[in-house]
Design brief:
This protein is 47% helix and 19% strand. The longest helix is centred in the first third of the chain and has 31 residues. With 254 residues, it is of the alpha+beta class. The radius of gyration is 23 Å and the shape is elongated.
Length: 254
């Protein structure tokens, strides 16, 4: 069994070639540099062009890297910077709240956990970095759906699965909940995704004042929302943490 897919390897080599040396290269230059037949090279270039990874100059016919690569690169840098800026503040939040803290970003119609601070006790815990959470039922996902137009479109177009008897799935009810989240600046999940688990989340903004992620405190429902009422000090602490990270990202005061 092959250990790699040849067409993907060739496409990667093509992108590296275009990334170095001359700004633009012709089909013959690319084919000869990579030892490919012109027809093969053209087919790969055509696919990369359709996906936005390569652009072709209309006058010369030469190829260069496309804008989609820049977008993907910026996305990686944004997430890397977000996590780096959030390290100290999320550690402080976990310590002051006594609960787990998650930092999440929009990714593939869900929430990708990019940072996780364990609850500061001796209990056994599992690192959740890299895990995915649903948009419609988690505090992180609801905050992103409320403040990020892309997340909002994705969550409204997708099937909103019911995880527990408390999960909100109806479109009109869900939209009303998002309106409330925008007005109050935070979201909660009280056993809407997992029985016995509650969370509070607030959005993180960048220097353009665009939502780039969200931070949440997560724990047992009896600690986070005793008697069915969210602890107001947890809400304040999460919002303060999100504002601090946003300020470090250049967002200014919110």
């Amino acid at each position: 069994m092959a250990k790699y897919i040849q067409s993907l390897e060739r496409a990667a080599a093509m992108l590296r070639l275009l990334a170095g040396g001359e700004r633009r290269l012709g089909l013959s230059d690319i084919a000869s540099s990579l030892g490919l037949a012109k027809g093969t090279a053209h087919g790969i270039l055509r696919t990369l062009q359709l996906e936005g990874f390569v652009e072709q100059d209309a006058t010369s016919g030469r190829y260069q890297l496309g804008a989609e690569l820049l977008r993907l690169g910026n996305s990686y840098l944004d997430v890397h910077e977000l996590r780096a800026r959030a390290l100290v503040w999320t550690d402080d939040l976990a310590r002051s709240s006594g609960e787990s803290v998650h930092l999440g970003v929009l990714h593939q119609h869900g929430v990708l956990i990019v940072h996780h601070v364990f609850r500061p006790d001796d209990s056994r815990q599992v690192l959740e970095v890299g895990a995915m959470q649903p948009l419609h039922s988690t505090a992180l996902g609801k905050v992103l759906s409320a403040f990020d137009p892309v997340a909002h479109s994705e969550v409204m177009e997708a099937e909103r699965r019911s995880f527990t008897g408390r999960t909100v799935t109806a479109a009109d009810e869900f939209e009303a909940m998002l309106d409330l989240i925008r007005a109050q600046g935070w979201a909660a999940d009280a056993e809407e995704t997992w029985e016995g688990v509650a969370a509070v989340s607030a959005p993180v903004h960048d220097r353009r004042r665009m939502p780039v992620g969200a931070v949440a405190v997560t724990g047992a429902v009896e600690r986070v929302a005793p008697g069915g009422v969210l602890r107001p000090e947890l809400i304040a602490a999460v919002r303060d943490c999100a504002r601090a990270v946003s300020r470090d990202l250049g967002a200014g005061r919110f």
